[in-house]
DNA sequence: ATAGGGTTAG
């Protein structure tokens, strides 16, 4: 092909570039690659036709806008043109916006103005495309001024480019003001405006504007339908979604694959998986988005195994598909499976993005998998994955939930941008790790930074007060929630208050709070009171709280167990026997205690009395050794919370086999001397395990960190960060 | 020789 073109060219005489006789440029139509363009370009130089503007235009247009465009090449040629026409400037701008360098486009545009070349109606659509929020904030207004100055605002392409620039960079109000002022709108104007509202999540306004558009008689295109279906999906508005579906059929709108996918997504989001699936099954062609949408649909409806079935059937998966499936496991608290899937994702050589990283960090946080979390952090740096605020927040949360307060704070202090969630993560993280005072300090910094707290932030503040016994500060803050921060206390806040007062020994006041709260107390509030009764061994109030809880949640086994603990601790054996009988009759089973420990990137799981671990034999031998070592340091088993009907010796065996002890023994065997042992437990730590962990930290000079259901225990040199107050 | 809008995920 190139040689034919070259032959053709060589027949054109070198002197043929006289104005009255422009050279033929048909041979450029066959040019397919930059390689061919280079040959043609060389020929035009040899023959001299290069000096003719028509030829220059052809070469520049190809170099800038062809699929295999080469802006370095284009710029080199551009520099040889003494007086570039507006056309040449335009294609240069287009070239830079195509390769996602809108700032370079702006630089070219400014150079063009300096050379006194006026922009035309082609310039702005190229120039404004692909602006990010930052670029729009920096140049948007000025360029908007230029549009008016050069009298181009009535051109519909220019006007749509302006609306699109503002709305796609989140400056929706600016977009709207151009939109409202424009006299001639077409369907694209409406589309870009509506998608602007989608962008800032004002889906109800998207829906409203769509209705207005239809009323005004503007005919929607498939693109309009996709935008509005997306809004319906987010609003979970099945009614409008169905209407639009009907509209598609009634008006014979050509349903392309993107539109079909949007329909599948809308039905899935509205909980209509059967309709969603039906559309999916009837598709002639399916792409990775169709499949991912189905996977996500099942994930959202909690049917993670069905989601997996479709995920496994996919012939092609991208990082979004993998992340969707990982999230499906997260949603069901199946964190280990989430991590297993991440390993498969790596094996498949699919590159994760920052969304994947957030999901994996969440799994690490919940499993206490610090090693893997650290690895992810290094991976993010190494692979230059976008390290945005979401990632920072997830890292902070991971470090706190793994009990590493120092590193969590280090991430916090180096984050360039912080949002409400960042501050809240730090406050909650400090609180659960027992650093109440510091949490309050961060809270006042947050207020100074003019970040408004939300409900969760308030939970963190109350939790900080509760875990550190700051009763007066907690009372004061609770009173200020409405007056200072405009936040109405919800059940969780009342629960925190009851916890705060009750734990500090003000059981009567705590009970009063429950009785006087403006809404009917729920199980969170009664549960907090019940927990306080355990700490202070008040079996009478405990009975009231437990009875209320069981009215609300008859299936809540933990309530029975806690009441048993309390009876046992108060030596109320008769009551305990009756309760045990009732539990037997109702078939109530204790949730087995379960502890997780990560070792060399693998999460090991232990349940009470477990013998399933490959190292089980060694673990029990180690446990024997620990017990005898600790006895020298003053350890005696504390079986006061054991409520099983058995002799003292059997009780000792029962506490001896608790899952956190197995995990500690395993940790001591498998890690280097001096390494911190981190454990995550699903239930509250028992008194005996707590006592033993303190001694382990002293005798073996090991830091032991146990995260239980509600808080952290940092064991160091024989004492615990919770000050035995949990 | 050069024009604009869309789906999946924390």
Automatic annotation (TrEMBL):
Keyword Repeat attributed: yes
Annotated region (Disordered), positions in chain: 1-20
Organism, as annotated: Rhamnella rubrinervis
Superkingdom of source: Eukaryota
Pfam families in UniProt: DYW_deaminase (PF14432), E_motif (PF20431), Eplus_motif (PF20430), PPR (PF01535), PPR_2 (PF13041)
Higher taxonomy: Eukaryota, Viridiplantae, Streptophyta, Embryophyta, Tracheophyta
An MF annotation (GO) of this entry: RNA binding
Protein's UniProt name: DYW domain-containing protein
UniProt record, GO biological process: RNA modification
């Amino acid at each position: 092909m190139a040689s034919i073109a070259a032959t053709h060219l060589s027949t054109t005489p070198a002197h043929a570039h006289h104005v009255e006789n422009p050279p033929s440029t048909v041979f450029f139509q066959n040019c397919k690659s930059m390689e061919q363009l280079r040959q043609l370009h060389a020929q035009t130089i040899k023959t001299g036709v290069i000096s003719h503007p028509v030829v220059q235009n052809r070469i520049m247009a190809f170099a800038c806008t062809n699929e295999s465009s080469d802006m370095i090449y284009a710029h080199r040629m551009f520099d040889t043109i003494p007086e570039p026409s507006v056309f040449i400037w335009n294609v240069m701008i287009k070239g830079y916006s195509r390769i996602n360098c809108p700032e370079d486009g702006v630089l070219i545009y400014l150079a063009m103005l300096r050379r006194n070349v006026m922009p035309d109606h082609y310039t702005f659509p190229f120039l404004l495309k692909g602006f990010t929020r930052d670029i729009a904030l920096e140049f948007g207004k000025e360029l908007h001024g230029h549009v008016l100055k050069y009298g181009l605002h009535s051109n519909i392409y220019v006007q749509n480019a302006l609306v699109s620039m503002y709305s796609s960079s989140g400056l929706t109000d600016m977009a709207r003001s151009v939109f409202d002022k424009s006299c001639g709108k077409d369907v694209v104007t409406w589309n870009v405006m509506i998608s602007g509202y989608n962008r800032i999540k004002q889906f109800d306004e998207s829906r409203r504007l769509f209705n207005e558009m239809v009323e005004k008689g503007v005919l929607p295109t498939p693109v309009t339908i996709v935008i509005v279906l997306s809004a319906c999906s987010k609003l979970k508005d099945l009614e409008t979604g169905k209407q639009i579906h009907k509209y598609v059929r009634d008006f014979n709108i050509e349903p392309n694959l993107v539109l079909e996918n949007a329909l599948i997504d809308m039905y899935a989001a509205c909980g209509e998986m059967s309709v969603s699936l039906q559309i999916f099954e009837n598709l002639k062609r399916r792409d990775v988005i169709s499949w991912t949408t189905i996977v996500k649909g099942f994930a959202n409806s909690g049917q993670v195994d069905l989601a997996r079935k479709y995920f496994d059937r996919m012939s092609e998966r991208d990082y979004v598909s993998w992340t969707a499936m990982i999230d499906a496991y997260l949603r069901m608290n199946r964190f280990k499976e989430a991590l297993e899937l991440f390993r498969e994702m790596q094996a498949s050589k699919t590159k994760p993005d920052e969304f994947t990283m957030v999901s994996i960090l969440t799994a690490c946080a919940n499993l206490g998998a610090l090693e893997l979390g650290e690895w992810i952090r290094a991976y993010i740096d190494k692979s230059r994955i976008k390290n945005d605020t979401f990632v920072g927040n997830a890292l902070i949360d991971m470090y706190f939930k793994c009990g590493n307060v120092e590193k969590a704070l280090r991430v916090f202090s180096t984050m360039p941008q912080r949002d409400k969630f960042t501050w809240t993560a730090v406050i909650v993280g400090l609180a659960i790790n027992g650093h109440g005072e510091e949490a309050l300090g961060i809270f006042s910094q947050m207020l100074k930074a003019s970040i408004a707290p939300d409900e969760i932030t308030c939970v963190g503040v109350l939790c900080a007060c509760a875990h550190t016994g700051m009763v007066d500060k907690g009372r004061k803050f609770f009173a200020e929630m409405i007056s200072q921060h405009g936040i109405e206390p919800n059940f969780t806040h009342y629960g925190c208050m009851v916890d705060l007062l009750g734990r500090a020994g003000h059981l009567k006041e705590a009970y009063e709070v429950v009785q006087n709260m403006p809404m009917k107390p729920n199980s969170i509030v009664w549960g907090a009171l019940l927990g306080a009764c355990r700490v202070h061994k008040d079996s009478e109030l405990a009975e009231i709280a437990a009875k209320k809880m069981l009215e609300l949640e008859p299936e809540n086994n933990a309530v029975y167990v806690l009441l048993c603990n309390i009876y046992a601790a108060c030596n109320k054996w008769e009551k305990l026997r009756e309760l045990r009988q009732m539990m037997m009759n109702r078939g109530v089973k204790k949730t087995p205690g379960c502890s997780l420990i990560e070792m060399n990137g693998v999460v090991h799981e232990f349940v009470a009395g477990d013998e399933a671990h490959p190292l089980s034999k060694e673990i029990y031998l180690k446990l024997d050794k620990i017990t005898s070592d600790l006895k020298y340091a003053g350890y005696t088993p504390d079986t006061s919370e054991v409520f099983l009907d058995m002799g003292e010796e059997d009780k000792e065996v029962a506490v001896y086999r608790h899952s956190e002890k197995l995990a500690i023994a395993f940790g001591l065997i498998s890690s280097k001397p001096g390494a911190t042992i981190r454990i995550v437990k699903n239930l509250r730590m028992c008194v005996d395990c707590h006592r033993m962990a303190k001694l382990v930290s002293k005798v073996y000079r090991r830091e032991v960190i146990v995260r239980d259901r509600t808080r952290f225990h940092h064991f160091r040199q024989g004492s615990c960060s919770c000050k035995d107050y949990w």
